[in-house]
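so im writing up the methods section and need the Vacuolar cation/proton exchanger record in one place, dumping it here so i stop losing it
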Amino acid sequence: MIIKKPQPKAKGNRTEAKQNTSSCLKQGTASTCKTMQGSQQELRKFPEAASNLTERSNWNCNLENGDVHEDDTRNDDKGSSFKDIASSINGRSAHNLSSSVLRKKSDLMLVSKVRFQVLRSLVANLQEVILGTKLAILFPAIPLAIITDFYGFGRPWIFALSLLGLTPLAERVSFLTEQIAYVTGPTVGGLLNATCGNATELIIAMFALHQNKIHVVKYSLLGSVLSNLLLVLGSSLLCGGLANLKKEQRYDRKQADVNSQLLLLGLLCHMLPLMFRYAAAGGKGAAGASDYTLQLSRASSIVMLIAYIAYIVFQLKTHRQFFEAQEEDEEDEEEKAVIGFWSAFCWLVGMTLVIALLSEYVVGTIEAASSSWGISVSFISVILLPIVGNAAEHAGSIIFALKNKLDISLGVALGSATQISMFVVPLCVLVSWAMGNMMDLDFSLIETGSLAFTILITTFTLQVPKVVY
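--- predicted struct ---
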């Protein structure tokens, strides 16, 4: 009789089955173990909830570490009970368990939790708004300007520090306006951009009008238009052409034509009071000519504001397809709002107030800085103030031109010049009328001639929808 010995593979198969079962259990409970261990620290103050949770966590962690008894793997009842526990834990996470216990115990922990969330949100907003720009290094100039004025230091120092502080504020106002536009939509966003796009120039002009410094208002606004059309647009075309030598830079001529026509309309409104003054000076005298020039300027300002409102409707509603080329380019780098609506609104109001304070310093100390530095007020108003107010737009226009996105670059330069010429200038004329001042659109012969040559050169340059450096 041949007696067959038991196959040694049976024990091996049983051991292998035990190992497979253990590995499956370990894989199924590894994430649960880590989650439960993290939640134990939250529930130390609540023993009745933590005790049950701790038992489950310890048993699951023993499975993960390989401490599995053979009886546990064979017993179907215990295996089914483990499956029930694991499924219940997976169905309701430890975070939900701890949250339910917190709701039952006290609202004090919830209050502290909300406060922590608010503090964390505030820190995140500070990081995005204050540290989210490369110009953040200039923010310390703001408190330095306030301290300098409070202790009565040299007025030229107040002027210089105020100019440095206005530079990052102007860029951040544009950023906050974009964040609000993500929530409000393109129509309201376009109106906000029309109002806040050149907030620095507008606020400086208002303070200058309040102090009856009409020449500062005229020079600063004229300098903004010239700076956008000559410096910003010219440097953008030059840098973009040099960076894309092997490419032919093209742009959509439709939006360039619309902006050029508005600039020509603004030039006509500036030339009419000038020509009327020279024509009427011989018969009515200087006083009579000045009165008629002032009335003509106020009527022209109303026409300019109506034309600019029509341009906003034209751009955002009726003929939006003309500007779709620019929007398609922006889709390549689509951005989302990084802060909420109310946070952006509060930051916008606060920064506008700071801009108003620094603008008051600038207007009040411009003559002292002019005499101390040996520079004329007209040079400071035409050159320095526009560069400070449009520093962010200057950099942005050049960057888009380097990336061969000429439509956006032209939109920044031409759009800002159009906004100053057709919105800020006539608004200042009407505000001065309400204040009892006598600001008109007569910018004298040399200033109006410079504006005319600049607009004509820009219009003829953009007749062909392709440019080279």
